[in-house]
Amino acid sequence: MSIQKPKFKDIDDYINQSTPEAKVILQKLREIIHQEAPEVIELIRYDMPSYELQGKYIAHIAAFKKHIGVYGISIEEMKAELMPYLQEKGTIQFQLTGSIPYDLFKKLVNYRVQKEILSS
């Protein structure tokens, strides 16, 4: 049995292999995560960019043909704001052709960091 080699060596590699539209969005989401959690550790997990703080994941982000998927953020208190972007439990999709709600993403990350990671 052979061990599967990772597709990406790091987040820069992942972003660089994405489409031009996705690159811009992925980089902006990355910047927001770093603003809200300067001590974040960047990893590739499940073949996608993952961001960890104090041993807990803030989010996993993946680029697809028509959208950016955000995983690991499931905040019940913001369900009404997230409704246009929610797909399945724990999955948020931002369409590449639409306006990306960066302020909402910042709010999600801040909530996750402050309420679910740093306060635990």
Percentage of helical residues? 25-40%
Radius of gyration: 14 Å
Number of domains: 1
Tell me, rounded to a whole number, the average pLDDT.
90
Named at the architecture level, the CATH assignment is Alpha-Beta Complex
Number of strands: 5
Just give the CATH class: Alpha Beta
Q: How much strand?
A: 15-25%
Q: Shape from CA axes?
A: globular
Number of helices: 4
Structural class: alpha+beta
> What summary fits the major beta sheet?
5 strands, antiparallel
Distance between the ends: 40 Å
Q: What is the ordering of alpha helices and beta strands?
A: HHEEEEHEH
Low-confidence stretches: none
How is the CATH topology named? Answer: Aspartate Aminotransferase, domain 1
Strand order of the largest sheet: 1-2-3-4-5
Description:
- Strand 1 (41-45) and strand 2 (48-53) form a beta hairpin.
- This protein is of the alpha+beta class and 120 residues long.
- It has 4 helices and 5 strands, in the order ααββββαβα.
- The chain is 36% helix and 24% strand.
- It has a single domain, classed as Aspartate Aminotransferase, domain 1 (Alpha-Beta Complex), CATH 3.90.1150.
- It has helices at residues 11-16, 20-36, 79-82, 102-117; strands spanning 41-45, 48-53, 56-63, 67-71, 91-95.
- It starts with 10 loop residues before the first helix and ends with a helix.
Tag the structure with descriptive keywords:
5-stranded antiparallel β-sheet; globular; 120 residues; 5 strands
Helix-strand blueprint:
Elements (H helix, E strand, L loop, with lengths): L10 H6 L3 H17 L4 E5 L2 E6 L2 E8 L3 E5 L7 H4 L8 E5 L6 H16 L3
Antiparallel strand pairs: 1-2, 2-3, 3-4, 4-5
Helix pairs in contact: 2-4
